Amino acid sequence: MSYTLSVGSLRCHILSDGLQHVDGGGFFGLIPRTMWQSVIAPDELNQIACDSRCLLIESDAGLILVDTGNGDKLPAKARQRLGMDDRNNRLIGVLARLGVAPEDIDIVLLTHFHGDHVGGATRWAGEEGSPVVPAFPRARYIGQRLELADASFPNERTAATYLADNFKPLLECNRLQIVDGPQRLSRGVRTDIAPGHTIGLQTVWVEDGGESLLFLTDAASWAVHLERLAWVPAYDVMPLQSMETKRRLRQEALERNSLLVFQHDAQVVTARLGEGRRGPVIVPVITETADFDASR
Ligand SMILES: [Zn+2]
């Protein structure tokens, strides 16, 4: 699944890496299920559908890919547990349908190093278990220094998502450019630091001709997270910081009438903000019905 849209003269594509099944409590943290189930209904295992979207930007600096989805290196058991779509309906297949081959990508921006964002950055050279190589052979990959530090020395809580095979091979072949703080990638494309979910999380702004798009990554994984500041995922390492980050991003997006892209929301792909009685509210632009197969 993909959507093509323009921000001024810049063309962008929102690409899905497919739906997964994840525990509902992960995304909604302290919020009781009786509250979040009115946003998305869980199945009998308390699981919800979760997308993994990436952004492709046709920029002056070439094709910029933001995040890479789960990739193909997860063990079969994990793929089954997540209910992952087959390859054709995931990032590489969706890119191919747009006529984009992995070697066409010039820059891969990694918003953070969690497995569902950088898993597709590398792949096995041959069959399962063979050496791991960059999945985008010509690309320069960009990640934040603090994110690399956390990923390189994970703790008991983060070890399951910071997997060395997703980024170490990039370092070893000198393809991962480590940066510190906000960056300008090309005319109209820049990053910003949005701490909370992780220390070094980076969001992406696309801006041209008075229009703007904000790729929120896990600063607001679902649209409702931006509308209700107290709704912070259990995954976030600094939940109070997440709230302040969301407050700032929400105000900026509201003032600029920015198009918001949600990475994991299985229902709201893009939205803008409107003024509500109790603060800014989400006004969906592109929506989907999560095709969630609870009977699998
Ligand atoms: Zn994450």
Please, could you describe this protein's structure?
β17 (268-276) and β18 form a beta hairpin. This protein has helices spanning 24-28, 33-36, 76-82, 91-97, 115-118, 145-152, 168-172, 223-227, 239-256, and strands at 2-7, 10-16, 20-23, 47-50, 53-59, 62-66, 107-109, 122-124, 132-134, 140-144, 176-179, 184-186, 189-193, 202-208, 211-215, 259-261, 268-276, 279-287. Strands 1-2-5-6-7-10-11 form a 7-stranded mixed sheet. The protein has a 7-stranded mixed sheet with strand order 12-13-14-15-16-17-18. The protein is built from 9 helices and 18 strands. By secondary structure, the chain is α+β, with helices and mostly antiparallel strands. It binds zinc ion (ZN). The site of zinc ion (ZN) has 5 residues, from loops.
- Beta fraction: 25-35%
Number of helices: 9
Give the C-alpha Rg: 18 Å
Bound ligands, named by name, code or SMILES: zinc ion
Question: How confident is the prediction overall: mean pLDDT?
Answer: 94
Which descriptor suits the 3D outline? Answer: globular
Order of helical and strand elements: EEEHHEEEHHEHEEEHHEEEEEHHEEE
- Weakly predicted, low-confidence segments: none
Structural class based on helices, strands and sheet pairing:
alpha+beta
Sheet with the most strands: spatial strand order: 1-2-5-6-7-10-11
Helix share of residues?
10-25%
* Alpha-carbon distance between the two ends: 21 Å
Main β-sheet description: 7 strands, mixed
